[in-house]
Amino acid sequence: MDRVEWQFMPDAQTAMSALIAGEVDLIQTPPVDFLPILKATPGVTIETLARFGLQGIVRMNHMQPPFDNPKMRQGMLHLVSQAELLEATIGLKDYFKPCVSMYGCSARMTTKLGGAPLEAPNVEKAKALFAEAGYAGQSIVILDPTERQEVHGPVLALAQAARKAGLKIEVQPVDWGTLMNRRAKKVPATEGGWNIFISSQTLLTASNPMNNLGIAANCDKAWPGWPCDEDTEKLRTSWAKASSDPERKAIAEKLQKRAYEVVNYIPYGEWSQPVAYRSDKLQGFIKVPINLVFWNVTKK
Questions:
Q1: Burial group, residue 296, by CB count within 10 angstroms (0-12, 13-18, 19+)
Q2: 62 secondary structure, DSSP code
Q3: Contact at 8 Å (CB) between 104 and 194?
Q4: Quick one: 84 exposed, middle or buried, by C-beta within 10 A (0-12, 13-18, 19+)?
Q5: Distance CA 221, CA 227 (A)
Q6: Is the fold of 12-50+273-299 the same as that of 54-271?
Q7: d(CA 109, CA 102)
Q8: CA distance 53 to 50
Q9: How would residue 41 be classed by pLDDT, with cut points 50, 70 and 90?
Q10: Which helix (H) or strand (E) holds 95?
């Protein structure tokens, strides 16, 4: 192929209908609700082309109340149900699995250390921690990119769980571009900032403590959310300087334990994102570590 043309279709029903009718050749992230229909459509194939899956991220704003208080972040750790958020993200159990390792469950650095709260969510424990933090009912803004079903779904699931624990949640609908701009703002939520957003990273990125988006805690230089913790950064530096895998593994365990204490971010499990394409038109897809490439693809 000489040319690939991307069409933005925010309405999932429109995109599915276009694929079924042959008006488009591929949907990169087909909504899970439509996968059974697409699987049953002659000429359409559902396939996972990225060898590494994705890890879900719940990211809190460490700079602004109420999540500048570590007790509030620890409360959220006891609140998150990986199963519920994964169900809302991808739906079909063939494509997801809970995993408390910040590095991913298939990574060489994988460990469960520090992740016990995610294995047994406890609303009462969350409520107790919120009370310890002195939470007084202030509004908590969660950014909700409604056109991204794989984010919109877990946002709603998280908001429901948080409300059950007594948090006052304000879900603000935005598009993905607005979310990207908003999350870079360090101002209070009342001035156009935010308190929580949901995102993801590839498991290839997550597997390395130096690349993992959520672990770094170098304050205002960190990924939006801006965790600030000297111990985390010392451990990351030690990991980078380690000379053997056993040494790196031991440091990675200490690092994850510390990251869970600080609650730099909350991983909510991992999944594979299938693509849907017209296999009666497109041939030659090759599997790569991440994302989607069109090398070797031909079109009839």
A1: exposed
A2: S
A3: no
A4: middle
A5: 9
A6: no
A7: 9
A8: 7
A9: very high
A10: none
Domain ranges of the chain: 12-50+273-299, 54-271
CA distance 155 to 59: 11
31: enclosing H helix or E strand = none
pLDDT in tens, 214-265: 999 999 999 999 999 999 999 999 999 999 999 999 999 999 999 999 999 9
Instruction: Say which CATH architecture domain 12-50+273-299 belongs to.
Output: 3-Layer(aba) Sandwich (3.40)
Name the region of 134 (left: φ>0; alpha: ψ -120 to 50; beta: rest): left
Tell me how far apart the alpha carbons of residues 54 and 297 are, in angstroms, rounded to a whole number: 24
Closest CA to 49 of 206, 279, 245: 279
- Give 295 or 91, the one with higher predicted confidence: 295
Residue with tokens 């209908």: 17
**The length of the chain, given as a count of residues:** 300
CB 27 within 8 A of CB 33: no
* Spatial CA neighbour of 199 closest among 28, 67, 59, 94: 59
pLDDT tens digits, one per residue of 64-77 = 999 999 999 999 99
CATH class of 54-271: alpha beta
**pTM score, whole prediction:** 0.88
**Predicted local distance difference test score (pLDDT) of residue 198:** 99
Q: How far apart are CA 234 and CA 24, in angstroms?
A: 50
Say whether pLDDT at 276 is over 90. yes
